[in-house]
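Hi support team,

I've been running sequence recovery on a batch of backbones for a student project. Most finish fine, but this one hangs at about 90% for roughly twenty minutes before it completes. I'm not sure whether the input is malformed or the queue is just slow. I've pasted the structure tokens below so you can try to reproduce it. Let me know if you need the job ID as well.

Thanks,
M.K.
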């Protein structure tokens, strides 16, 4: 203790300055350990940051590929729909044509039936007028 009663403000004896020097050395040693821990943690964080950056790059590339695939699928879908519409139109044409062919076939059968019935009636009338039955 010095004359003012302060222990750590230096003094006339060698004990207090040596004690302060040892305390500073211990504090520096503790700070050195802390700096080493912070440096190791910083390195770990840097590695994690690098990993995240690489992951982001991969994900961006994946997103680009997905967008490109989606565009290609849209083109293919449009092509399929165009072909489906063409097929639908062709089927409708064939159905109309088959109905027209069926009507034409029915008409020819109807004409044949009219011819046969007309001929039969004429034959019966002629038979009656000729003195049949």
């Amino acid at each position: 203790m010095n004359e003012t009663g302060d222990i750590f403000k230096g003094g006339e004896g060698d004990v207090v300055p040596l004690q302060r020097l040892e305390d500073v050395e211990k504090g520096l040693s503790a700070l050195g350990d802390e700096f080493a821990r912070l440096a190791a943690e910083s390195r770990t964080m840097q590695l994690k940051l690098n990993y995240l950056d690489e992951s982001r790059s991969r994900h961006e590339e994946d997103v680009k590929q997905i967008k490109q695939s989606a565009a290609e699928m849209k083109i293919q879908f449009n092509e399929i729909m165009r072909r489906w519409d063409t097929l639908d139109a062709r089927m409708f044409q064939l159905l109309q044509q088959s109905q027209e062919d069926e009507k034409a076939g029915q008409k020819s059968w109807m004409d044949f039936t009219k011819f046969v019935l007309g001929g039969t009636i004429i034959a019966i009338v002629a038979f009656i007028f000729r003195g049949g039955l």
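--
Follow-up from support: It reproduced on our side and the slowdown came from queue contention, not your input. Helices lie at 15-129. No action needed from you.
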